[in-house]
Amino acid sequence: MRVAIRMPQLGEAAAEATVVSWLVQPGQAVKAEQELVEVQTEKSLLTVAAPADGVLVEISAKPGDVLKVGEVLGHVGDPAAQAAPATPALANVHDVGAPPKPRAPRPNQLRPSGRSGDDGGRIAPPSLMAGSGERSFLSPRVRAKVAESGLKTSDLSFITGTGAGGRITAADIDRYLAHGEPMPPIRQAVAAAMTRSWTRPLATVATSVQVDSVLAHRRTVAGRPSLTVYALRALALGLKAGSPFAKRLYGNRMHTPGTIDLAVAVEVGDGVLTPVIRKVDELGLPELTTAVEDVIEKARAGKMADAGEAVASVSNYGVFGLTWATPIPLPGHSVILGLSAPQNQPEWNPATKTWDRVRRIELTLTFDHRIADGGDAARLINRIAEFISKPERL
Fold first, then answer.
1. CATH number of 2-80
2. So where are the chain's domains?
3. CA 353 – CA 374 distance, rounded (Å)
């Protein structure tokens, strides 16, 4: 008996994942819940466990393959259940036996030819090479390779054809592609997620907030919370205070999660992961500091403890010294809060009638305009700024 290893549910917004590597090889014994294969979503690197005791008898998905939730990665079973070799495909009938009889060409397949070495009168289907201004003829085989490789028509203008009359051959395309390199799985996942996100109507609002009080307050809190921790806590409380952005959109229905779960952007290797922190609105600053440090450590180690979904996320682009950016919310997230690096700015003090030097950060809130409007976003970001300016309320 064989039991299928299927791509598990990866979260409400993740419909597929890329196979990264197998941790067990066919023929090896495995135990139920043993980690078998690593897969990459747009959020994290996850492991899929064995569904039962037995032997890994078959690997159906190789590294680089993209599978949807529920599709088969391989099979676990008894040693006798090793996968039988696939039945060889039938040979093309033109490859064996007597050659097929030639058919008389139709009148519209003929054309006059005044030179030798032509194509025998067959008219190849034309394809316009964008950017060249000339018409080039691509064989069905070449057109299939173009589609399979993901090339666009405009890319063909960069390929030098070595076929008759300068036509592009399959070998020309292979040589062109050989100069590139495959996109890492995490970049494929990020690209897919950002493409899905960009299909939504997104908008951004912004404001600035003074952070001298936060920088002083963090010295009094266990663990010395970072600005990211304060931003997560302020966002959670802002969402909890009746913001429509505390909801998730499924088709034409709005769903309000029972808890405020938030994600935090973490740069790792070739991309960005967004581990989820549960019940942020119920965590104090010391507990939230520990939770953030824990998920960041796991993310950078390539292991994510929680691959679930969040309603929103925080991106501290200020760690790169940036003073402005508009992060893109993940699919399924209603908003993403970005925060800049602190900047020294002059501020008039009416009490002393002097200019004081203060430190301020820019807050940007990019939101899904389907869920709520600009006024709702403005109220949310102003509430967040108020919490940050008065950290004792956090």
1. 2.40.50.100
2. 2-80, 123-184, 201-393
3. 36
